[in-house]
């Protein structure tokens, strides 16, 4: 049932404040303002590193998770797409931890990665949406994402719930390892509690994005740029756009621009820059100047402060609420999803059933 939405994808984008609130209720002790103890197969304090394996959008959630685990828990993270992880025979220590992330819990390569990790004697924690899935059954422990059934082939609400769970796990790891002060934990938890409200606010920007989508629909190539946790988000934006609109899109680390992709910049290729006003904003802003100087048309996703500091002409500036940097990836996901959605709808594409794609990829 799509409710009063035209597509499942729209319905699922709009469900995000609700499903993230549900996921938070599971992982956060609201009264104490702390992350709940997670049912972990191995103590975070005993680990030297963790490995993550996943595919597609779930892999990109894992990449955001890597930044969080390394920052808040000082825990090195190795991440691979599952199709590489399973065959490259990475040396994995007995008793260590592998995290697999999957909406369906049936993705063949992710399942094979899980089995490989277990063979190596690792504990496997599955961040998974379907609790009855094979991946949930075979892993050592499950961290459920609680997004509810996702119908649209392009993953939206499952991605946001994966981010929510990963941030809670990173905070729990930070506490266990003594790398995150009680005050910093409180700051992140308070920010997390505010996320459903901020998502609802971000959704109010839909009309502006719908208009912008008509411009994007004319492009044959689109570049997405971001730094820090906005980098995996840039790749997620590009993935969403290509899979449902069939426009060629690439996500790049903003700092990589001058190492190649800048050669592509001209007035026909929109450049979507994801840049909340954070510790790396100034660096991204200078990459933006380089794009502008070459006639590139910029769509800037930022906040009030970032818009003021950027000081350049853009095709559009989409302003989001000012947020704690830890939760920015969750909030900035909304415009990225809406842009892909409206571009594809405007082009008359079947957004819920894009060509050549299946919701659950059970072959390698
Ligand atoms: C993209 C998308 C895919 C999936 C990938 C993994 O929107 O939906 O990239 O994320 O096929 O699927 P799961 O999470 O079911 O393992």
TrEMBL record:
Homodimer. GO terms for biological process: amino sugar biosynthetic process; carbohydrate metabolic process; fructose 6-phosphate metabolic process; protein N-linked glycosylation; UDP-N-acetylglucosamine metabolic process. It is found in: Cytoplasm. It is an enzyme of class 2 (transferase). Residues 40-179, 212-354 form the SIS domain. Catalyzes the first step in hexosamine metabolism, converting fructose-6P into glucosamine-6P using glutamine as a nitrogen source. It catalyses: D-fructose 6-phosphate + L-glutamine = D-glucosamine 6-phosphate + L-glutamate. This is Glutamine--fructose-6-phosphate aminotransferase [isomerizing]. Its EC number is 2.6.1.16. One of its GO terms (molecular function) is glutamine-fructose-6-phosphate transaminase (isomerizing) activity. One of its GO terms (cellular component) is cytosol. Keywords: Aminotransferase, Cytoplasm, Glutamine amidotransferase, Repeat, Transferase. The active site is at 359 (for fru-6p isomerization activity). It comes from the Bacteria.
